[in-house]
Amino acid sequence: MEQELQLVADFDFDMIVDFFSRLNRQGPGSQQVTRQALSFIGELSDNAKIADIGCGSGGQTITLAENTKGQITAIDLFPKMITLLKERAIRHGLSDRISGIAVSMENLPFEPGELNLIWAEGSIYNIGFERGLREWKQFLKPEGMIAVSEVSWLTDTRPDEIEQFWNFNYAEIDTISNKIKKMEEAGYTPVAHFILPEYCWLDCFYKPMQENIPLFLEKYKNSTPAQQLVQRELDEIDYYRKYKSYYGYVFYIGMKNE
Ligand code: SAM
Asked: How high is the mean pLDDT of the chain?
């Protein structure tokens, strides 16, 4: 869903949320990748406080809860996502560990120095990578950890078509080395980074999305806005298939400096 909100800004937000809330996750990722990123985070205690920002319907939240200790506060702008997240937490018997709040990542409800870990899978782009890293740092304890996944260039050069696509949709896309530099400049020690494998896009995100399209179109009676939304998603999938050697999602893990 990374550029959709911008691409389809003229669409009905309820319809967009409905489109994506049908999916187990709203962006590229997998349980395995969440666990891999978690492997770089030190042991957390039962008192640990974790924020899962831009949680969507909780694709990663359950994996986080199953592989950490402490309390997780999951945040999403859209109440529908928080409802789905809470239902999911109940289904997994984790509602005592996971709470959900519908609020913007631009206005987080945490106290300074409260959090041990900030998690944001495929969502920091909504506030912007640099701004998110800088603004959220205040909520981390000294040496608190942050883990975010973010679309990044995988090569130093690339064809004009894909360069223009991303510059239009998310101009903050950058190379991995520049992203790491920005993390350092924002006051973190980079701890690890890794590129999400293709299956996180194709099997875990795009495949279920494509499978849901017929039901979605049926619900909206093939309306023009629904068809346009679907077409934009299909175009995005085509772009990924064509240019996946040039861009991808990268997990960046860092530790607050002071
Ligand atoms: N982390 C989930 C995942 O990987 O499945 C969702 C990723 S989805 C690409 C981005 C999420 O950010 C969406 O659930 C969207 O509703 C949420 N979002 C968008 N703008 C937001 C904002 N200003 N504050 C909080 N969440 C926001």
From this structure: 95
How far apart CA 230 and CA 116 sit, in angstroms, is 39
Domain locations along the chain:
26-197+245-256
Judging by beta carbons within 10 Å of its beta carbon (0-12, 13-18, 19+), is residue 20 exposed, middle or buried? buried
Nearest CA to ligand 1 atom 8: 26
Q: Is the pTM of this model over 0.90?
A: yes
Residue 78 near ligand 1, beta carbon < 6 Å:
yes
Q: Give the ranges where 41-196 is alpha helix by DSSP (H).
A: 61-66, 79-91, 129-136, 160-169, 176-185
What ipTM, to 2 d.p.?
0.99
What is the three-class DSSP state of 206? helix
| CA–CA dist 25, 22 (Å, integer) | 9
The whole-angstrom separation of Cα 33 and Cα 194 is 9
Q: Is 25 in the pocket of ligand 1 (CB under 6 A)?
A: yes
Which residues pair with residue 51 across a beta bridge?
Answer: 73, 118
Q: What is the pLDDT of residue 1?
A: 54
Residue 112 burial (C-beta neighbours within 10 Å; 0-12, 13-18, 19+): exposed
The residues, ordered by sequence, that sit 6+ positions from 235 with a Cβ below 8 Å of its Cβ are: none
With a 6 Å cutoff on the Cβ, whether 122 touches ligand 1 is yes
Report the CATH superfamily, name and number, of domain 26-197+245-256. Vaccinia Virus protein VP39 (3.40.50.150)
